[in-house]
Amino acid sequence: MAGQWSGAGATRSRQTGRPAAAALALLTLLTCCVRCAEPTGIKPSNIILILADDQDVELGGMTPMKKTKALIGDAGATFVNAFTVTPLCCPSRSSILTGQYPHNHEVRNNSLSGNCSSSLWQKGPESEAFPIYLNKQKYQTFFAGKYLNQYGKKDGGDVSHVPPGWDQWHALVGNSQYYNYTLSVNGKEEKHGDSYEKDYFTDLITNRSLHFLDDRSPQHPFFLMLSPPAPHSPWTAAPQYQKEFNTVKAPRDGSFDKPGKDKHWLLRQPVNPMPNSSLNFLDDAFRKRWQTLLSVDDMVETLLKKLESIKELNNTYIFYTSDNGYHTGSSLKHRPCSHHSGHLRGQPVCREHGRPVLPPPDGSLSA
Ligand SMILES: [Ca+2]
């Protein structure tokens, strides 16, 4: 991640467009959360990492998340020029977990043959991922949500495979879903249907994290990693949000529906100009993405209220970020995976309530 630092904790800033490792920078911050407290002998800070799926910044992906911006970004810091290591779910998530670039952890794409949650990954990089370090420091660790795209599949160790370092494990089998999915709950299969109250995945992640906080041991710090499906397809919003943003359309500025005749072969593939059916699809997808994020915004608010009620808010770092960006209509219609800046950029925000957020050494987040 390369970045210009902004927000309450900002002391210096630097403009740079050089993509570097968001994952490494995030790990540095996470590690510092632990190490800063070690010499004093006091209980280390708690850490919460919320990882959205395909949430862009260049299309205004944070716009619907007013509570998250106020409660985390405005109360802490926003990294306004941040880049993921690669714009694809599984390699990016593997980097976040290990701090390694894809050429080192060797997860090349979202398939098993591309090393996504493969046995090679499980025996190698996953056995050295950062939750193991936190667990050794007596952190109570909790995961809920989408892990890696091939996680839980039969050829990837099935649901019985629980990565090391996690005390509580509620991981989605496969790729993002909102209903009708399967979880591995501490290595046991748990199937879900389509009842909003029982099954809506973003809310289930929130509710289970609240239970974990109720059951935790107050003597030790905790680490929560919450990985909601939003705003990834199939873009299924909660019932109360399905009519929101009904006049919003995908942005028409920048490279929207521009011909790519003189560009890379990939950019030359879409039909140009786009037919009305494509434009309608993109506008619909854009609205639905924002609608799904409203439940994530609720998640952030609910969590912070919970932290306040259990008197842990003043000792908790909260990080919010995405595994990769996205685009709708900018030369490539709708996909997350190319190396154009819209797909690489997310906008991480973090907060440590009660103390200044630690600034990076030179105001950037270069790895
Ligand atoms: Ca993703």
From TrEMBL:
UniProt cross-references to InterPro entries, sorted A to Z: Alkaline_phosphatase_core_sf, GlcNAc_6-SO4ase, Sulfatase_CS, Sulfatase_N
Q: Where is the composition biased (Basic residues)?
A: 332-343
Principal location listed in the UniProt entry: other
Q: Where in the cell is it found?
A: Lysosome
What's in the GO CC field?
lysosome
Task: Tell me yes or no: is Hydrolase among this UniProt entry's keywords.
Answer: yes
Signal peptide boundaries: 1-36
Q: Which residues does this entry mark as bearing 3-oxoalanine (Cys)?
A: C89
Q: Which SUPFAM superfamilies match?
A: Alkaline phosphatase-like
Q: How does it get modified post-translation?
A: The conversion to 3-oxoalanine (also known as C-formylglycine, FGly), of a serine or cysteine residue in prokaryotes and of a cysteine residue in eukaryotes, is critical for catalytic activity.
Domain Sulfatase N-terminal, by residue range, is 45-334
Give the enzyme class: hydrolase
Instruction: Please state the Enzyme Commission number of this protein.
Output: 3.1.6.14
Which stretches does the entry tag as region Disordered?
Answer: 331-367
PROSITE patterns assigned to the protein according to its UniProt record, in alphabetical order: SULFATASE_1 (PS00523)
User: Which key words are in the record?
Assistant: Calcium, Glycoprotein, Hydrolase, Lysosome, Metal-binding, Signal
Instruction: Provide the GO MF annotations for this entry.
Output: glycosaminoglycan binding; metal ion binding; N-acetylglucosamine-6-sulfatase activity
| Family designation | Belongs to the sulfatase family.
Query: What name does this protein carry?
Result: N-acetylglucosamine-6-sulfatase
Q: Which organism is it from?
A: Xyrichtys novacula
